[in-house]
Amino acid sequence: MDEEVTILDATDLRCPLPVLRARKTLKDLPSGKFLDVFATDEAAPADFAAFCEETGHRLVKIAQNGKIYTIRLRRK
Fold it and tell me: Taking the chain (76 residues) in consecutive chunks of 10 residues, what is each chunk's mean pLDDT?
């Protein structure tokens, strides 16, 4: 894949901070661009699923490597 991805490091932040920071970052991205959020909060996958359902952004994937979740979002 040859797509540009913006990275947001939200490790060690607790709910609701990862979602709030992602919301702010997504506002600055053009439509269709990707954002990868790195998070360690165990609630992050469910929080981002709800966030995307509420806002219309697309939850592309959630991956876990050890304690770190990588959550890929696509700006609506």
Answer: 86 97 97 98 98 98 98 98
